[in-house]
Amino acid sequence: MKGFLRSALVTTLLGWVIWGYMALCNRTIRWRVAGKERALDVWLTHPSLIVTAWHSTILLLPSGWNRIIRKWPKQKARSAMLISLSRDGEPVAKAISHMGLESVRGSSAHKKKKKDKGGMRALAEALRILKEGGAICVTPDGPRGPAEVAQAGPIIMAQRTGAPILPYAIISSPTKRLSTWDRFRIPFPFTRGAIVFGDPIIPSEGQDKETLRLALETNLNAAMAEAEALLQKKTAPKGGQGQARRTSEGRPESLRSPPTKTVID
Asked: What is the structure's pLDDT at 3?
């Protein structure tokens, strides 16, 4: 039975089901977006880009791609997502392929079992994509955690290619949290959602890897906190009391995000 569930036919069907559910959530969730200007600035001023998001948000990750990133000018040569080489990652890989995204398969080896998970091949392919002027999405706490603790993968990519790292938070409410290591999020259609692009990390020559890692973790958690705040903020009736105070640019003050960048010397 277990073999049947992991067969090519079932994996293909699951890929279509996951894609359909991702598309349904993307189209029906009422989205709020923050940080789009700073993200676009990084996109336009650098030939390649590393986008990072926590593993628990995988089912929503393509929404930011479909609604925002794929509509930006100067599209990258290739756009891909790093996905575990495990059988569980196969349906997700097939799902994102229906959205025009490549999958780079592999993850770090298990420290105790020392079993090859395709990590070195995945890193080599990710570096190739970045050097060719591409963009790649990475879950820095995957595939086994600890949850919301950044690992070194995207830092190595950034240091070897000079590509900036863009924190990307995307959540919805209400949502179902599973009892997995990352408390995986199952979004629901026709709910509320928030997309926040955090402060990018711009690598420079000779900087410390741990300092970069902490900057990524801090900025990504800050973006998640901002996304949570956006979901908690209720929309006031147009022209009614309680309407958010607006900036001189016409945007709600609560959504104003300065285009800051984290540059570590």
From this structure: 58
Residue 104 · residue 50 · CB < 8 Å: no
In degrees, rounded to 5, the angle at the alpha carbon of residue 40 between the alpha carbons of residues 34 and 44 is 170
Tokens of 223: 């973006």
The 3-state DSSP class for residue 143 equals: coil
Render the burial of 201-216: b for 16+ CB within 10 Å, e for the rest.
Answer: bbbeeebeeeebbebb
pLDDT tens digits along 128-181: 999 999 999 999 998 888 999 999 999 999 999 999 999 999 999 999 999 999
What is the pairing mode between strands 79-83 and 49-52? unpaired
Task: Report CA-CA distances (Å) from 249 to 35, 231, 252, 255, 257.
Answer: 14, 22, 9, 11, 12
User: What is the C-alpha to C-alpha distance for residues 229 and 130, in angstroms, rounded to an integer?
Assistant: 33
Question: What is the DSSP-derived secondary structure letter of residue 127?
Answer: H
What is residue 233's predicted lDDT score, i.e. its pLDDT? 82
Q: Residue 113, CB half-sphere, CA atoms under 13 Å: how many?
A: 6
> Is residue 237's pLDDT more than 80?
no
Please compute the mean of the pLDDT values over residues 57-72 and round it to a whole number: 93
Beta carbons within 10 angstroms of residue 192's beta carbon: 20
Residue type, 199: D
184-227 tens-digit pLDDT: 999 999 999 999 999 999 998 888 999 999 999 999 999 999 99
- The pairing of strands 165-177 and 185-197 is antiparallel
CA neighbor of 261 nearest in space, from 203, 194, 196, 207: 203
Q: How many helices (H) and strands (E) does the chain have?
A: 8, 9
Q: Report the sign of the C-alpha dihedral through residues 86, 96, 57, 199, in that order.
A: positive
